[in-house]
Amino acid sequence: LKKNLSFLERLALSTPGIKHEHFLDIMANARRRADIENKYDDAAARLYRAVEAYAQIKLAGGGINTSDVKIDSLPQEIRTEFSNKYKDEIDNRIKLPLYGSYKVLELLKDPAGQLFFEQWPQMKLLLDLRNKSILAHGFEPVKRERYEDLFNLVCKISGINEGSLPDFPNIML
Predict the structure, then answer these.
(1) Which residues, in sequence order, are CB contacts of 44 under 8 Å at separation 6+?
(2) Which of 32, 41, 43, 107 could form a disulfide with 75 if both were Cys (CB 3.0 to 4.6 A apart)?
């Protein structure tokens, strides 16, 4: 109980902005949705958010806010491309999606960015499954095996193991 309270305090009482605890919480929530409720579509959607959040956390550590990227914070070789590709026409901010975030990490030689692209064929298949689910853009259910594959892949890219996730007790009401 003390461990859970400490985790929740770090999540709730720390400075604003995305942090590693958010990533761990999303991962643990995905695991609960799958293991307790058998909601694999929901779990896959949460894993998508987790892998996106992980990139946002890594980039924020280097001073890059994916919702408002300053052009000079990007590696020189992608500045023009990313400015053209990801600049929002309404507010003129550069906003990085999941793929663009990991491309920046890869060019910055971050291990997560490099692993993401080493695993890209598998990652693409699994992200497409999420996109085809009813919680995204389609009607195909996510099967447990595919959820497990995605969970393991997100763990690999982030370097975490399941034992490091917050474990909340099961309380039957």
Answers:
(1) 30, 126, 129, 130, 133, 135, 142, 146, 147, 150
(2) 107
